[in-house]
Every structure is written in structure tokens, then in C-alpha cells.
Amino acid sequence: MADEKPKSPKKLQSVKPDVASLIGIVVAIGGILAGLVLDGGKVTQLLQKNAALIVLGGTLGAVLLTSPLAAVLRAAKGLKSVFLEEVVAPEAAIEEIIAYATKARKSSIISLEEDLPKINHPFLRKALTLAVDGTDLKELKDMMELDMEQGEKREESAVKVFEAAGGYAPTIGIIGAVLGLMQVMQHLENIDEVGRGIAAAFVATVYGVAFANLLFLPSANKLKARMHSDVTTKELMLEGVASILEGMNPKLIRVKLEAFLPHAPKASKKAGKESGAEEPAAARS
Questions:
Q1: Span 201-222, pLDDT tens digits
Q2: Is residue 173 scored above 50 in pLDDT?
Q3: Distance of CA 77 to the CA centre of its chain
Q4: Which of 83, 91, 121, 160 is a good FRET partner for 8, with 20 to 30 A between their CA atoms?
Q5: By CB neighbour count within 10 A (0-12 exposed, 13-18 middle, 19+ buried), where does 208 fall?
Q6: Which residues are bridge partners to 86 per DSSP?
Q7: Measured between alpha carbons, how far is residue 55 from residues 27, 59, 112, 169 in Å?
Q8: Contacts by 199-203, CB closer than 8 A, 24 or more apart
Q9: Does the pLDDT at position 3 exceed 60?
Q10: Whole-angstrom distance, CA of residue 19 vs CA of residue 119
């Protein structure tokens, strides 16, 4: 009889739009513009390219002075993940790990070597590769925890860039408003234009506060949430691989890993079915 091969879940990883972020930015901007119009203002009053240039240029310059270029570039790439979420389903990760545990228990952990190229999550693939290569359990945990720690530091550097931008933008907006008022004060002889000039000058302040509180700071908090979710997923995977290396029963591994789920597992019926000798469905070809 041929060896049973784990069947990797089809949707362990997927990228999908973050509906909360998309709705949030639309509601925030829409509410502000609607309030402006209801107060008798016009949306065109906020369309000041000079103010946007001052705020965005000044903020970018301040951030580049504060943070390394690599961190700024990482933050720019990370902005995409604020609106596009890379999801790793913990339930799918558990099923995949249980499949590998079942095969390793039947045919030894060396039998998982042929499955390594098919593992699409790099952290799980690296951990299982070390296990298959005969790495000591303590050494494996130390290496993978170091991997997690360094990855977390890289993500934190991007978060700090957005937090810095959120701190600088309102102040740069005030600088833009003062510069606009300086220009207005030089033309007080044309009193009809003074009012419009003052109103336009304060648009820079609006831009600074809006960018800080509608984009930069929320993006920093969203990336923090992504980072914490990623760490939890990696901890789940590391615990699963360590349990395989220890030769733990797959049913006990499932019980252990379900503690990482954000909600109470719906697997009580499945656990009852697995109380016999039946292997997990993910382990069947």
C-alpha cells in the first residue's frame, strides 16, 4: 500500500480586500465632505495643490530625516497591505499540520521531505525542513523564534514610519497655513481677496490633520494588528512542528493548536469522530 500523503489545504493563504479599511476611509472622507457641504462650503475649496505639496513634501522630508531609507520604503510597500489583507486561515493551518503529523507518525518524520516543496507558507516550510533535517527540538525553537523576532522588528520599523508621519503632518500643516497667511498679509490693499486668502491658507492645516488622522496613524495601527496576527499564526505553526518532532498523537496536537483559534472551535464533533483510528481527512490523498 502506498504511503499516505498530506493534502495541503487549498486556501491556507489568500489575499483579499480589507473591507473595514475600505469602508472606513470612504466613511471618514465622505462624512467630512458632507459636513462641509451642509455648512454651505464647497468641495473645491479643499482642492489646493500647493497646500498638499507643502504637507506631503514636508512630512516626507521629516520622515526621511527620522527613519532609515529601508524602513521608509518598507512602509510604502506596507501601505498596500492596509487595504489588501493577506489571510492565513488558522483552521486551514491546523488541518495541514495534522496531516503532516499523521503521516510522520505512520512513516517517520523523514517521509515529510517529499512534501516540503509543496508547502506554500515560508515559515512552516522552514520549520518542517529543520525538523526533517534532524535539528534538535530546542535548537529548532530557538532558530524559528529568532526568525519571528527579526520579522517583527522589520514590521515595527514600518509602523514607526507611519507613526512619525502622523506626528509631523499636523505641524507641517500649520507651517503651510502660516506661509499662506504671510502671502495674504502682503496684499492687504486688496481687501476683497483677504478673506479668500485666509480661508485658502488654512487648507494646509486641514490637510495635515486629515492625513495624520485618516491615513498615517490608522495605517500604523492596522499594520500593528497585521503583525500581531502574523505572530500568532507563526506561533501556531511552530508549536505544531515541535509537537510533530516530539511524536505527539495527532489528536492531541489538534487539541493543543485549537487554543490559538480566535473563537471556540467547532471541532467537538470532529474530535469525536477522530476518537477512533480514523486519520484526518487532510491526510488522505
A1: 889 999 999 999 999 999 999 9
A2: yes
A3: 11
A4: 83
A5: buried
A6: 15
A7: 23, 6, 55, 6
A8: 199/45, 200/45, 200/48, 200/51, 201/176, 201/177, 202/177, 203/45, 203/46, 203/48, 203/51, 203/177
A9: no
A10: 28
